[in-house]
Predict the structure.
Amino acid sequence: MSVNAQAQAPTLEMVAARAGVSRATVSRVVNGSPKVKPELISAVNEAIAELNYVPNRAARMLASRRTESIALVIPESTSRVFTDPFFASIIQGVAMHLATTDYTLGIVVASEANPDKTRRYLTGGNIDGALVVSHHSGDHSYARLGRSVPVVFGGRPLHAEDNDSVFVDVDNISGSMTATRHLIERGRRNIATIAGPADMPAGFDRELGWRRAMDEAGFDTSLIEWGDFSPASGAMAMRRLLARNTPIDAVFAANDQMALGAYAVIAENGLSIPRDIAVVGYDDDALGSAASPALTTMHQSANELGAVMASTLVKSIEGQDVEHQTILQTRLIVRGSS
Amino acid sequence: MSVNAQAQAPTLEMVAARAGVSRATVSRVVNGSPKVKPELISAVNEAIAELNYVPNRAARMLASRRTESIALVIPESTSRVFTDPFFASIIQGVAMHLATTDYTLGIVVASEANPDKTRRYLTGGNIDGALVVSHHSGDHSYARLGRSVPVVFGGRPLHAEDNDSVFVDVDNISGSMTATRHLIERGRRNIATIAGPADMPAGFDRELGWRRAMDEAGFDTSLIEWGDFSPASGAMAMRRLLARNTPIDAVFAANDQMALGAYAVIAENGLSIPRDIAVVGYDDDALGSAASPALTTMHQSANELGAVMASTLVKSIEGQDVEHQTILQTRLIVRGSS
DNA sequence: GTGAAAGCGCTAACAT
DNA sequence: ATGTTAGCGCTTTCAC
């Protein structure tokens, strides 16, 4: 396994010769041009099949100045998002959608040590468009890319001034209001929240939704602790909440991972879910439904988020007008924990 | 956001003009050729910086017949591996390693409806090499790719005849023996296992390790149920195990997700971990350490697996000899569940 | 050590 | 509807 014996790939010219037509005609057939005589089309297709011809991507890119490839950009500091199931599902949605198109998906980890490397790659004509997901930062510093190449963001921009960028997001605010109201309807009064970082849109918005629902009901909003979306941080936040020695009969966690971290702490303290403390999460992870009791949560399709981002980008690349904002709905899944 | 106003990118020729040298020299500088006069090197570099020049990938690929890009191939049926944290970490490891090289990472979801599409893409000179990860199938049907392009597999081939392929794997057999022996040393006797699918190497090998350790101790190996590595399947397997009404004082699960699924069922049955049933998982997920009690597990660095796969592939592409097999070690992490 | 020139395989006017 | 002809931007002999 050391030598790379590339078999000589058949070229468009060879196909042309075999089919007895010009290279231009072969190119037209390959690219599905409408005006080629049917008989020639089949002749060409036969030759293609016999030769097992595959167009050379590089040549095509060079000549057409389109790359047919899009990049999924992940800020390095955020690269741990890989282990976040929600994020992983987004990639999956993107990949699955793109598989139905001719676009190729490239993963780019944006080195923060050398940001220009990434920027150059992205603006250097290597890609037709970019998807930027920074679940944990909401950083739209790549917004300027938008001037050289279409960009679609996952998650809303944190600052209003980035408002001209195109993004797809889940409805975090009303989702968390729904979750909190659900707890209120169940008769809970001392509802705490384990929030995500306030400098990330998902963290900020889910906290905001909880506040709104609580205000609306006239309840106190002092029962709040922050985590970083990891299970361990959820556990620590729960510990701090319990240490306050204030009555708590429910917890709304900004994601399932933190909710599950809280589960452990609640159990350790001899408390029962949902009898003593009801718990609601967010994201609808696979583990939530297998937990005991099964976790009530807000479902949102990360797959769909990814797919919508991808299709929005493709439309934009192809010159169609697209919505600047697309907000995907969430829905409450009531299970045993509330 | 509909028109794609590509600013005219500077070309190598423009750099040459500005630096007062020929295009060939610029090319040499860009590619780090050893024999260019230092003064010219700096002149060229200055021009490059001033123009903010970026080499055009397509042109380079076409002229050099190297693509500088590698594909990570994921069989469609396996695409849910995206939500498996272990797998997600592999991608992360690959991406991080590749970020230190000049190679670009492409994600290819291999459509099973149209396998030729993928095969052609991979063999059509679009990539310099491929990484194949099919955690859940061990399918080395892409082994033949090895004839046109270097391929490195994640996970060993399920069948011996695929033995000439290059792969990197974690040491599943001795890892699960270690886990099982640990349980035995703790005085457990009726040790059940929640195994993974037998048609996947990780499932098969982890079951085998458990069997070996049990045989070695002269214990009965009938306490086995299978899952599919998902939390829900782990819960169901645990339910079946408990329904046997046979004494069980420990469970070795083939991954943490199933172990955590089992946690829920054990709790539902009023049993205590580890007092009544000790539990050991595999993979060292983030959630395991936040569970209550914290999960004892086998740690293996998925990040490292990914990085090693990537570096092995790059070496192979560059004509160096590489090990056909690389087995990464695992280590036991003892926590509260055992 | 450096430059001139010939392609790499394809697309896209333009001509017919 | 099909063929002819220039390139796309770079690498790479081959001379000098």
User: Anything to note?
Assistant: Residues 69-170+302-328 of chain B form a domain with the Rossmann fold fold (CATH 3.40.50.2300). The first strand of chain B starts at residue 69 and ends at 75.
